[in-house]
Amino acid sequence: MSREYELIPHGVGRYRLFLVDLLYRTPHIHRDFEISLVLSGEIYVNFVSETLRLSKDDLFLANPFDIHELQADKPVCILSLQVSPSFFEAAFPEIDQEVFTEHFINKEHSEPVRRRLCSLARKYLRKEPFYELDCASDIMSLSHMLLKTVPYRKYTEKELLLTRQKSDRLRNILDYVDKNYHQKILLSDLAEQEHLSLYYLSHLFSDSMGMSFQEYLSHVRCEQARRLFLSSDCSLLDVSLRCGFSDPKYFNRDFTRQYGCSPKEYRKKSRISIPYPKQTLSLTTQDILSESESLGILEQYFPS
Asked: Is pTM beyond 0.85 here?
């Protein structure tokens, strides 16, 4: 499973809100709290410990440093809010140590959260006078709702420090793999690059990702192969070589294991599927919508 560390740019408000049309988002790590609402379609959200299958009106949470991947069979539209813990430093600095223990917001508590998130999004997108104050107020209110309704625990200072150090190390490795998956990659070389022992890095990777390094690398290569099937007419051999497989038989074996059918069978199915964006250089397939597009979709989904 390809994973990337996401550095989220913040404005003065230290938060980011956007609507996105998405088919696939590489597994990634960021330092922000994230809450997302599915506006249309169905999507799988993969965390290390669980996989959520979500549809319209469902909400999910990601903690800072949570590794998560999003994938769908057809385009979905998602509203996402990402907030830096530093946003709360004056009013509630302890939030930096809070960790939600559940990623799914159950139906019993989701309606007020959904309403507050949509209200915040409208204010953010309309940008009427003093909208910054309205948005800040809504984020505080939304965060209060979540802490009252979603189970959480506290990190110790030591746990928080170790989590940050581990995430920084993983970021370097994952970025390297995402850029070089088509070449021969050895974990021993990465261990040397990070000044770590091979034994330590192997266990760090497996414990953090829920899979071995070789399984991860295979997942990255197979996902890129899947994208090439949907966006190009490359031959099976060419796809295999371009994605870093040393032998087509390994490609066939790993692809079948990951997607439940052979590359040939998948390509045949893809011929009658929906058109796929021509984005073959990046594993991520998403389109962050403009503010005017976002506002139009949001008004249809949740009329004023």
From this structure: no
